[in-house]
Amino acid sequence: MRGRNFNALGSLSGHASSMIGSLKNNLRRKEREKFNSSSKVTSKKAFIDPIKASPKLLKKIREKLQKENRKNLIFSLTLTIVLTVVLFILFNYVKF
């Protein structure tokens, strides 16, 4: 016996408790509640059956989606170009 504070794990007690804590944390739900709720209020889009929809309505939906996708693409490209230029300037002209 090593004294009063002897446990069966000996020097492994810290490692074992870390392992148990890690396993408990891994068992928790992966999704967190604060990420599930959104601060934005989104409108529920009505389901449109493509079989019953008129070609005119489908064309309108297609054009709307293409416009949104184009807008998102332009925003992404602009952001990427601006960040690239800023990083280029930062690494080439700013001396640390």
General description of the model:
- By secondary structure, the protein is an all-alpha fold.
- 60% of the residues lie in helices and 0% in strands.
Helices and strands, with pairings:
Blueprint: H1 13-27, H2 33-36, H3 55-93
The overall number of domains is 1
Shape: flat
**Structure class:** mainly alpha
Report the count of strand segments. 0
Mean pLDDT: 77
Our Rg estimate from Cα atoms comes to: 28 Å
Distance between the termini: 57 Å
Strand coverage percent: under 5%
Task: Write down the secondary-structure element order.
Answer: HHH
**Considering DSSP H and I runs of 4 or more, what fraction of the residues is helical?**
55-70%
User: What's the helix count?
Assistant: 3
**What does the main sheet amount to?**
none
Low-confidence stretches: none
